[in-house]
Amino acid sequence: MAHHKGGGSTRNGRDTAGKRLGVKKYGGEAVVSGNIIVRQRGTEWHPGKGVGMGVDHTIYSVIEGRVEFRRKDRNKVFVSVLAHGTGGAVAGMTARGKVGHKAATPIAGNGGGTHKAKATIGVQPGAGAVTGKARAFGLLAAPEGGKKDELGLISGVADKTEHVLNEHGIFHFWQIAAMSDADAEKVEHDIKFNGRIRREEWREQARELIAGKPPRAKIDRDKL
User: Which of 118, 129, 196, 218 is geometrically suited to a Cys-Cys bond with 123, CB 3.0 to 4.6 A?
Assistant: First the structure.
């Protein structure tokens, strides 16, 4: 009897992208709100100041600044983001995952000492913060400061959707958070999103991320 070997199958009928776990931003690297620093399962790295941790233990920045890895508390490694202008000993993690220390940087006008100002939770002004008077919605020709926010932290925004938003001039959480109903309706019409911004609560999620809250749980994809 002839036999025919059947072809392999994939879950849900499609190939699923790998998890791509590990350190994404190393010690001393500049980040903006929403940047993923460590993607992990479990807590090999722990959240410190200026970061948030999602339901799958991914650590992401909630402010603009520089990444710090610091070993403390029974040899646990804590990940923090120091706001720009904040001094102190910056623990830099190399590409091999080893922790080293850089000398503290003296701050002008501080008697040659190091500045220990506490990092403020939220998006800094250079990254499109909604601080003080709220900014009005508008499209941009390029990301402010040359760095866009990780819009994929919004549940419902996949990689392709984020690319479409960027092409349309939307790069930051503050832009989505600042949309009025009319703004959202126009953007939905222009890029054929069919009510998704309002239906999936992108504006509410963007405001939560700006406020330093963790991203909402995503069941349908491996994006944090």
Answer: 129
